[in-house]
Amino acid sequence: MSDDSATNGLPRRQLGSTALEVTSVCVGTSPLASMEFLYGYGVEEDTAVATVSAAFDSPVNVMDTSNGYGPAGESERRIGAAIAARGGLPEGYVLATKVDPATGSTDFSGDRVRASLEESMERLGLDHIQLLHLHDPERITFEEGTAPGGPLETLVQLKEEGLVDYIGVAGGTLDIMHRYVDTGMFDVVLSHNRYTLMDRSADELYDKAAARGMGIMNAAPYGGGMLVKGPEAQPKYAYGHRDGTFSLRATQMIEACARHGVPLAAAALQFSVRDPRIHSTVVGMSSPERLDQTLSLLAADIPQSLWDELLALTPPRELWLD
C-alpha cells in the first residue's frame, strides 16, 4: 500500500482519515482478562503484564482493549500495570479502548459513557484516550444510541473536549453497524469474526467505511480459534456452534495448507492483513510467545495457488453471520 511506512520491519498504515499510524497487526487483549468461560483457559496476572510489556517492545504499535474485558476491567488494569512499570505509554504507541455498561448493568446512557471512560483512564493511568469505541451497540436500540444525551452524542462531546482523539464503533451485528457508520460521526469501525477465510459478511460494511475514509480494524481472523486449532480441537466458530459445513471446510483448508507446507493460522491471519481496506487486524494475545508466533505467521510465504484453493472453500453466503 502506498501509505505504508516501514518501522522495525513491520509496516504502519494511516488509520483512515485519522492522524494515527498503526501496524497491520493489533494486539487484542480480551484474553488477558482471564475469561475462562469464553476462551477455556485463564491467564495469570504476571503473564498478562509480561505480554503487554513484550508488545511494547515489539514491532507492533497498536493495542485494543475494553472497559468490559473481565470483571472490573481486569484487562485494562493489567495493561495499566505494564504502562506504570514502563513509566508511561511508549512514544508512538496507539492504545484503543471501548465504553461499556457497568458489569451486570444494561445502562448505556451518556452518563454511563462518561463514567466508563473515567474508569478506563484510571485503570490505564492515562489522562486521555487516542481511540474510544462504542462497544457492542446491539445491546441497545439504534434509537437509544443516537438519542439526545445518549452514547453517540456523548462520545462526540468527549472528542470535542479533548479527552478522546478519535471515536469508533466496534461490534458484531451488522445491520446496526451499518446504521452507525451511516451517521458519519465515527472515525473508525471495528468488526469481529465477520471477515475471515470462513465468513465475508462484513465485506459491504468495509466497502462503505472505506468509501467514507474511515479507519477499518478487523478482529478475530481465526474465528475464535477454529482456524488455528482446527475444528476437532475447537468446534465452535465465533464462540458458537455453526452448521457442519464450517467444520468440513476448515478441515479441507487444513489439508490444502498442509500440501503447501503453510499453517492454516498463517493463511487466516494474512487473509485479513492483505486486504487493502483493512488498516489493522486485531489478534488476541495471551502470552509473549503468542506475540512471537503471530509475527512468524505474518512472515510466512503463501503462494497464489493456495489462496485460490482456500477462497474456493469458503462456506456459502447463507451460512455467514449477520
Beta strand count: 11
Element order, helices and strands? EEEEHHEHEHEHHEHEHEHHHEHH
Fraction of residues in H or I helices: 40-55%
**Based on helices, strands and strand pairing, what is the structural class?**
alpha/beta
Average of the residue pLDDT scores: 95
Concise synopsis of the structure shown:
The protein has 322 residues and is an alpha/beta fold. It has helices at residues 36-39, 45-57, 74-86, 110-124, 142-145, 151-160, 174-182, 203-211, 226-229, 244-260, 264-273, 288-299, 304-312, and strands spanning 5-7, 10-14, 21-23, 25-28, 62-64, 94-99, 129-135, 164-171, 188-192, 215-219, 280-284.
List the defining traits of the structure above:
single chain, three-stranded antiparallel sheet, 13 helices
Write the layout of secondary structure elements.
Blueprint lengths: L4 E3 L2 E5 L6 E3 L1 E4 L7 H4 L5 H13 L4 E3 L9 H13 L7 E6 L10 H15 L4 E7 L6 H4 L5 H10 L3 E8 L2 H9 L5 E5 L10 H9 L3 E5 L6 H4 L14 H17 L3 H10 L6 E5 L3 H12 L4 H9 L10
Parallel strand pairs: 4-5, 4-11, 5-6, 6-7, 7-8, 8-9, 9-10, 10-11
Antiparallel strand pairs: 1-2, 2-3
Descriptive notes:
The protein has helices spanning 36-39, 45-57, 74-86, 110-124, 142-145, 151-160, 174-182, 203-211, 226-229, 244-260, 264-273, 288-299, 304-312, and strands spanning 5-7, 10-14, 21-23, 25-28, 62-64, 94-99, 129-135, 164-171, 188-192, 215-219, 280-284. The protein has 322 residues and is of the alpha/beta class. Helix 4 links the parallel strand 6 and strand 7 (129-135). The chain is globular and about 55 Å long. The mean pLDDT is 95.
